[in-house]
Every structure is written in C-alpha cells, then in structure tokens.
Design goal:
Rossmann fold; 2 domains; about 45% helix; alpha/beta; 13 strands
Length: about 375
C-alpha cells in the first residue's frame, strides 16, 4: 500500500491537542495530508482549529478513556471502550496506512499506536511534561522515538531513542522570541493571569484578592489582564474596581500572543504548554502548580522553570493565607532587575522550531523504515 498520510493522535486535554495541531499545520504547509484522531472531548475543538485546512486533514473521534484507581465498574467500561477503539484503529489503518504515527498523550493514543506497531509504521511519542504521562509510559516500548519538551524526563534512563525537541507552538507566539523584553521604572507593571480548567476558581479569586490588597501606591502601579471563569468574573471585577486597579477580564483569551507581548510577567498554572509559551516569549512565570495534577507533574514542571531561574513557585496552600500571599507577590512583582534576569534566562532555555524538528524527524524515520523494508 502506498503510504500518503501522516497520522496524529491526541486527546483528553488541550495540553495534548494544541501541540499536535501545530505539528499538523507544519506538515500541511509541506503539502502533506493529515489523519487526526482525538476523542469526543476534543473533537469540536480540533474541527474548529483545522477548519481552514479541511481539504488537507480528516478528523476522527474515537472512543476511549483512561482508568481510575479502585473504580472497578468505571475501569471495566474503559476496557470495553478501548477495545472498540482498537477495532476503529484497525479499520482506519487498513485503508489509510500512514507514513508515520505521532502520539501526543491521552489514552486515546493507545489503540492506534498498538495497530501502528503491528503494521510496522514508525511511531513518535511526544511528552510535554517533566514526568512521563501514563499513556506514553504504557507505549514507551512500542515507540520508535520518544520526544519531549524539557531537557529530560524524570524517571526514565537516557537512551538514543529519546530526544528533546521542545514544544510545538503557534507561529505568532514563537515570533515573540525575537522581540525585546523591556520594563522601565516609569511604566506600570503589566501582569497577565491565566487559569486552567481545573482549580481555576481558587487561583483566580485569591490572586485577584491579593493584588487588590497590595499597598495603595503599588496598586496604582499595575495593570492586569486576567482570564477568569464565567461564574467568578463579577467577583474578580469587584475586587479590582474597589482597589482602583487598571484591569481587563476575559473568560477566554483569544489573542494570547498579543497578551504575552503586552505583559511583563505571567501568573499561571504549570501545564507544559503554558510554561513553554512563557519561555518562548521571554516572560517570567509566577507559577501555582495544581496540587491534584496526575503524578504531581505540574509541580515538577514548575521546579524545572524555577531551577533555571525563569520563574518562581507559589504553592497552592499559600493561596489561602492572604497576608502571606500579598507579601510574596509584592516581593516578586516589583523587583524589575529580577524580572529582566528571569526573562533572559527564559529565552536562553526556549526551543523555537519544535514542529519543524518533529517533521524532520518523522521524514527521516519514514525513509529509514522504507529502505529497511525494500
């Protein structure tokens, strides 16, 4: 069978799907056709993001989900769904045998990659976090190459099949890597606050409350753009209005590149996608790891950023101590020299061009596989 397409699989969260979409675009710019497999949670998002490329990409929603500890009935149903997904994957690859398969995480990747292995398709897994995700850990022995965002991943040995490539990001965000970070004593400090789907409420409200309790002269010296859930937006607006802080709130930040370019510092959760955007744009991070993240990966991501000097951690339990939080934020936000140093270190450790590196790797693996099978 003539292999003409690229198979890309990502599901579960936007953190898995967004870098996969950027890889798909990179291949489309080269004239390739894409098969994109995701799950029902991400299907509409992928369709929306790929609408302008609909002639070059076919999007499938497969059944499948992960497992939960001690949830026997839930896990039994998960086995049934993943078994059905195995059949979906078999039929997909029988009629669309790809050049190469890329997996970006989520349990939806497991069945198509198992079938890809059976059909001798080269397999590349990408891991965004500092700790290997459960699906990628399960698939590790089946992969041709494991690629990752950080310089290394905790808990796995160094091998030739493991490569640090960075994180595929939108072009408009990558372009910020070429812009100069400037902050003068005369201008207001510009703060971008982004949330996450999990734990966003406690972070948004407590950070807004703490900024509103800064000393009066400091409140007049800041401007804030904050992403906030719909149910919390009025409360957050009320805090800033009473404190007379210059602010703008939004349920969803459409122009993230513009906001990153505008701001001097980002207060955020610690998903790999968010942290990679901060590094590329040279924005210092004040990071609040989600305590309940799987395998505590958000803390491990944040520790890497803190260790290279590109940001600072505020633990989730510190959010409930209002006076302590105000002091921490005041100390971190208003040392301009420290912010400039963190910005320089962020850029130093950024890795622009990850999507192209993945394309080049995929092409190389396909050619090696073809020669081996001639």
């Amino acid at each position: 069978m003539n292999r003409k397409k690229i198979l890309i699989i990502a599901g579960g969260t936007a953190g898995h799907v967004f870098p996969a979409l950027e890889l798909a675009k990179e291949y489309i710019y080269k004239g390739e056709n894409i098969i994109f497999v995701t799950d029902i949670r991400m299907y509409d998002l992928v369709l929306k993001k790929m609408f302008n490329f609909k002639n070059s990409v076919k999007v499938y929603s497969f059944t499948g989900r992960g497992f939960r500890k001690s949830k026997y009935l839930y896990n039994f149903k998960s086995v049934i769904l993943l078994s059905f997904c195995l059949l979906q994957s078999l039929f997909l690859l029988l009629f669309n045998l790809p050049k190469i398969t890329f997996g970006f995480g989520g349990f939806i990747t497991v069945p198509p990659i198992i079938i890809s292995k059976i059909f001798n398709v080269p397999i590349v897994l990408h891991e965004g976090n500092k700790v290997l995700g459960r699906a990628n850990k399960f698939l590790l022995k089946k992969t041709t190459k494991l690629t990752f965002f950080f310089n290394n991943i905790d808990g796995i040995p160094k091998r030739k099949k493991y490569i640090s490539v960075g994180m595929p990001l939108r072009k408009e965000i990558e372009e910020l890597n070429n812009t100069k970070y400037k902050i003068t004593s005369e201008e207001s400090l510009k703060i971008l606050i982004t949330g996450g789907s999990l734990g966003a409420e406690v972070m948004a409200i407590n950070i807004a409350k703490a900024l509103s309790n800064l000393p009066k002269e400091k409140r007049g010296d800041i401007k804030v753009i904050q992403q906030v859930r719909k149910e919390n937006i009025n409360l957050v607006k009320n805090y800033y209005s009473i404190a007379k802080i210059d602010f703008n709130t939004s349920i969803f930040i459409e122009d993230l590149a513009g906001c990153l370019s505008w701001c001097h510092v980002v207060i955020c959760r610690c998903g790999a996608g968010t942290l990679s955007e901060n590094l590329i744009s040279g924005r210092p991070s004040i990071m609040i790891p989600l305590k309940s993240s799987v395998d505590n990966h958000q803390l491990k991501n944040a520790l890497y950023i803190e260790n290279i000097g590109a940001g600072w951690i505020i633990k989730e339990e510190e959010l409930s101590d209002s006076s302590l939080l105000v002091k921490r934020l005041e100390k971190l936000l208003f040392d301009r020299n420290k912010l400039i140093k963190a910005s320089n270190l962020a850029r130093k450790h950024a890795k622009p061009g990850a999507a192209k590196r993945l394309v080049d790797l995929g092409d190389s693996l396909f050619m090696k596989n073809r020669k081996k099978n001639v």
